[in-house]
Amino acid sequence: MATAEPETNPSPSQPDEDGAEQTGQEIVSPEAYIKHPLQNRWSLWFFKNDKSKTWQANLRLISKFDTVEDFWA
User: Where is this region: Disordered (predicted)?
Assistant: First the structure.
């Protein structure tokens, strides 16, 4: 699997044309923002065990996701 390494400015302490120092911020390629889709949409549920309620009333939706990035977020 390929990973994208952030590019850094090679000389962050060098002043630019108007004399101000550069901040050394990382430049990230647009490929780092591409989401990786899953084949299916997934849902995580929690079952609250309350015997006075029905099975459906005890289910609580935690999260839905369809990309790897949404799962880990």
Answer: 1-30
